[in-house]
């Protein structure tokens, strides 16, 4: 089973689209764990609506009306909603993982929409590559396509290129460092690399990031070269320095 862990902070509208993409998956052996990192928006309404959709799937076709009061009584074994004090993305991810029961972990930010076959392709990749600890794919961020390449340890030491939303064997996952506030995905993959854990690439675009959120951020490459004074560039460079120092790069 795949445990899908979704950290969310003030992204209720995007969360609704993320959850809808999970319901549309061809692979259905999963559980969903949403960790609300003390959001101030209408996330509870989004969760209530989604729980009704999940409950409807468990009822016979003749009882699928959304207004059916019996939907409120259906126990959802494959869904958890947790609210915690604000601790940041990594704290929320770790909290979700502690509640997970699956053999595989998928950390899926709220601003992500999965391709309908994403879980199926991820799971197949790990079954076909038992030596790999995780499977990752190419992805889109807004209009920008990030078409990746086969796993390369040397390149991983040079730059972050693997998205957080990759399928990980739970037994190989070391946990997220909650002291790291930026480039958390790069830190995770480097930590796993140091333990001899590597990934396998799927040559497909299996996820799309809406962008503009608090869990994910991206700037075009020219910004880092031509706009070093930009606040976001300074913060990025500072984050790179933190990661390089931690991993002796």
Task: Compose a concise summary of this entry.
By secondary structure, this protein is an alpha/beta fold.
Following the backbone from N to C, one meets helices and strands in this order, namely: EHEHEHEEHEEHEHEHH
* Helical proportion, percent range: 25-40%
* Structure annotation, total helices: 8
Count of extended strands: 9
Tell me the overall shape.
Answer: globular
Give unreliable regions as ranges.
none
End-to-end C-alpha gap: 36 Å
Whole-number count of domains: 1
CATH architectural arrangement: Alpha-Beta Complex
| CATH class category name | Alpha Beta
**CATH level-3 fold name:** Spore Coat Polysaccharide Biosynthesis Protein SpsA, Chain A
Q: What proportion of the residues form beta strands (DSSP E)?
A: 15-25%
Radius of gyration: 18 Å
Output the structural class.
alpha/beta
Sheet with the most strands? 9 strands, mixed
CATH H-level homologous superfamily name? Spore Coat Polysaccharide Biosynthesis Protein SpsA, Chain A
Task: List the defining traits of the structure above.
249 residues, alpha/beta, 9 strands, 20% strand, globular
Can you put this structure into words, describing what you see?
With 249 residues, the chain is of the alpha/beta class. The protein has one domain: Spore Coat Polysaccharide Biosynthesis Protein SpsA, Chain A (Alpha-Beta Complex). The chain is built from eight helices and nine strands. Helix 1 links the parallel strand 1 and strand 2. The longest helix has 16 residues. The mean pLDDT is 87.
